[in-house]
Amino acid sequence: MSTMPKAVEIENFSYKYPDGTAALDGVNLGIEHGEKVVLIGPNGAGKSTLLLAMAGFVKGPGKVVIDGLEITRGNLKKIRACLCSCLENPDDQLFMPTLFDDVAFGPLNMGLTSEEIKMRVADALRTVGLAEMADKAPHHLSAGQKRAAAIATVLSMAPKIITMDEPDGSLDPRNRRRLLKLLGSLPQTLIIATCNMNFAAALADRAVLVDGGRIIADGDAKEIMADAKLMAQHGLEVYSV
Amino acid sequence: MHHAHIDRFAYQDSPIHRLDSRVKFIVVLVFTAVVISLPRTSLSILACYAVGPFAILVLGGIPLRFTFKQILLVSPFVLVLALSCPLYDRTPVEVAFGPWVLRLTVGWMRGFTILAKFVVTMLALIALVSTTRFNDLLTGLQRLGLPKILVIQLGFLYRYIFVLIDRAHHILQARAGRKLRSLGFKTELRIAAAMVGSLFIRSIDTAEHINIAMQARGFDGKWNTLSKLRIHAADFVFILSAAFFVLGLYLCVRPALQ
User: What is the ipTM, given to two decimal places?
Assistant: First the structure.
């Protein structure tokens, strides 16, 4: 009997920065398909590096398996069609002259037909509420629109897993609520790194507390984020929603 | 931050905006070459040539105030060149405007012609970038045979120049907020060098992030695009009208005016 592979499976993974500082130290983590998981932790805890490791951008001892495929040079293309990363700064994510081209960039690299690409771009932009802005240049968008556009760039690739680094950064409350609604409606496995406990609690069922490159706690999001002692120990705060 | 983008009117809709970017680019290129090749005594014909881009700007709904502001912004470089001409050639010359005769030097004539050519070619250039979206212009240039790598670089330049300007502006604001007295030339120079260095390092950082964003979406070094350009009947009408105007003036009116 074949069992469905986990969305993400990390075994004893470590990574050191070029200057020798340990960014990740013996990380073990398993995430099932369909889960919405938040990686919480203070600045410099290793959350972003962990997300980069899942997309195969940092290499080190240990094993990272995405949807049953171990990260190797030969598997990278398949893995990146399955797991898409959304970077912290939308200006880094949106690098094409127009929104249409940016959202079409991934599907084009997947070798889809132009009709299929146009359909995917239209769907992705409609999902994030930017259907009318396809021809706009990214520098003409507001911070909230840029964030939504960055999400559209990964949605158009129809991945099974989406990772996001601090997606709530520099958003006003209204745009944050919109983002929460959008992320909550996505059927994909979501892995989100954030320092904002209220945002994390409103979005995810499961929280993974990372600090010093290690996983400190892993479990029910609200339970972990309500533990005042644990939160204070790691420079965080309890959620208040 | 909101910037005064040179192409901010390119997102309007007009018959000129709807023309194919390749057609507009070629017409502007030929127009510019013809205007530049005119002799230094052709001030009156230059005035006739100005009608073409002026008409395009009006048809495209581009405000003339915006146009002349853009011309003024880049004029200092040409002004220096034009105003230095009278110093080199002081041969007297008489210019007749109907019954009026103006006594000048060849240097002044040359200076006026340089300025006039600059204004006319700038009008054409502004008409092109104000009625064509930058992305369509890039796609057009690529279809006309410009190397892909150059098109990609131009695309990145257009995308990130505003991000860079924002960052530089923020650094300057941070400096102004803490600079409470004059620190002397040497210290100011050292601070300026540190600011440029910071901007440079952040640019490298951004480049690395963009590389990650591109690879994360399957980029393997092959640049794929969906070209949406198509030549329509209106483009042929535009080419014929432009050819009639440029060549007509060049062949017929020029001998009559000289």
Answer: 0.81
